[in-house]
């Protein structure tokens, strides 16, 4: 990688073609391949504007999901390759993509130093040779793809199950594996044994004779324990994890996979301390399996294993501190890029709403049909539409894409909990249970909070690209992390990259808690809400001394105790960090310490 940051996946449509915008500058980015209807429409769009051939792959074509994904990824690969070739044909003049490639690089980049030296040279052979050398050093940013392992809907045709290889996650994996990309698949949302077993059937995930991988595996994890469990499962199949991408449970956008009170500082510290041991343990298992599979490799060969972090980073100081102190290879910057039209697809109305929002406009919701907390935006048109539908007595959404269908409570084939069908059936059931009025309202509110993400996370892209179909839903869902609240306008790509590398400061004068304090505050608020919901449910339940209720309450109490204790351990870790003068100067001014003390006060109240 030429850069020390990457752009993570940003919903479905927001980063679906980000590689076409930033890869030519050496910036790596991630797109989601959950929605094959989206990839097919974007393939047509980009094929047409780039005069590339396009042949429609119909939904009823055998293996259409996999084929659509493969063809879209192949097109991206071809177009980015063409961009790099054209870039290398340019002259080193101001504002050309060629010059911008080097201007955007971090200040300590050896390549950037050569570029600046070249600019100072007089015309002659030395300058020409250095220009040739610089052009030969240009590499595109990675076109990486993301699969949520648990978004793995079973598929049927005329009521007949189409088999494990045609579930959504496995078909998407096949689409990536058969593409021409030399990049990584990022697996998020936990362990899927069936998916991991299927990876083993594709040769590109195994090392070639030169020791390189055509396809690499990145695990997105929330803690060290999850990383080692999943990586060992893969290693036992002869599959190497080329990167652990650690993500803050509550300080990122999209779905929020909250830990049981484990904070990101102690998590990163655990990776730092155990990184060498982790590598050695995994490598021993991995090499043994390669030998069993009779895969040739150099006995001195050592595959790379990177460790990166993403979530809530807001300043150049935080970016560099995380990389230096925790010995990371890079860091991800996600939500702020939603305010960069050169990098992502956000329609004008949503872009203006985000730019003019406050902290309270971004919140953790129960909107996702997956049953996982979801970062939401109060001013989104999808949220307005959801409220309007409720007011009309018709909660829920028409379910057309069916990617998040997983509930079989009322039907044989899975349906989505955000669908009008499910919400009608569930509300009718709740009304027959004899619940107290307050309890009934509370449970109905939880049901109708679910909203359609399959359409909502694509609409903004369709609006911006002007490919929205007649009568297609225009309502936009967007899921930024809370960090975006401190960025208050639209930015150019150069402005955002310069901010990341400390060449300018987009947050000058903004009163923003540092990354550790913000995450701690989010966890305390999360725990408080969980406890309030728990006790409210207890009050609303009829008197019942059954053993089942006692067991449930006991488990929840243990969960709260563990959560609170781990938060306290995290605070203790941060107090230790504050004793290091250099770190205190970089992270903890008097305002930040006051914020920390206030949060700790709230935590003590919860503990009591």
Can you summarize this structure?
The chain is an alpha/beta fold. Helix content is 48%, strand content 9%.
Explain what this protein looks like in three dimensions:
The protein has 21 helices and twelve strands. Helix 18 (515-540) runs antiparallel to helix 19. Helices cover 48% and strands 9% of the residues. It has 608 residues and is an alpha/beta fold. The strands form three sheets. It has an eight-stranded parallel β-barrel with strand order 1-2-3-6-7-8-9-10, surrounded by five helices. It has a two-stranded antiparallel sheet with strand order 4-5. The protein has a two-stranded antiparallel sheet with strand order 11-12. It folds into three domains: 5-337, TIM Barrel (Alpha-Beta Barrel); 381-477, no CATH class; 513-608, no CATH class.
Question: How are the SSEs placed, and which strands pair?
Answer:
Elements: E1 5-7, H1 18-22, E2 28-32, H2 36-49, H3 64-89, H4 97-103, H5 110-120, H6 125-136, E3 143-148, E4 156-157, E5 160-161, H7 168-177, E6 183-188, H8 193-199, E7 215-221, H9 224-235, E8 241-247, H10 264-292, E9 306-310, H11 316-325, E10 330-332, H12 348-355, E11 362-365, E12 374-377, H13 381-391, H14 420-430, H15 437-448, H16 453-465, H17 493-500, H18 515-540, H19 547-578, H20 581-587, H21 590-607
Parallel strand pairs: 1-2, 1-10, 2-3, 3-6, 6-7, 7-8, 8-9, 9-10
Antiparallel strand pairs: 4-5, 11-12
Helix pairs in contact: 2-3, 3-7, 5-6, 7-8, 9-10, 14-15, 18-19, 18-21, 19-21
How many domains? The number is 3
Oligomer: single chain
CATH T-level topology of the largest domain: TIM Barrel
The amount of helix comes to: 40-55%
Any idea what the radius of gyration is? 25 Å
Question: Mean pLDDT across all residues, rounded?
Answer: 92
How many helices? The count is 21
Structural class: alpha/beta
CATH-level-2 architecture of the largest domain: Alpha-Beta Barrel
**CATH hierarchy, class of the largest domain:** Alpha Beta
Q: Which stretches are low in confidence, meaning pLDDT under 50 for 5 or more residues running? A: none
Q: Strand order of the main beta sheet, please?
A: 1-2-3-6-7-8-9-10
Strand count, sense and closure of the main sheet? Answer: 8 strands, parallel, barrel
Strand content: 5-15%
Beginning-to-end CA distance, first to last residue: 48 Å
Sum up the overall morphology in one term: globular
Q: How many β-strand runs? A: 12
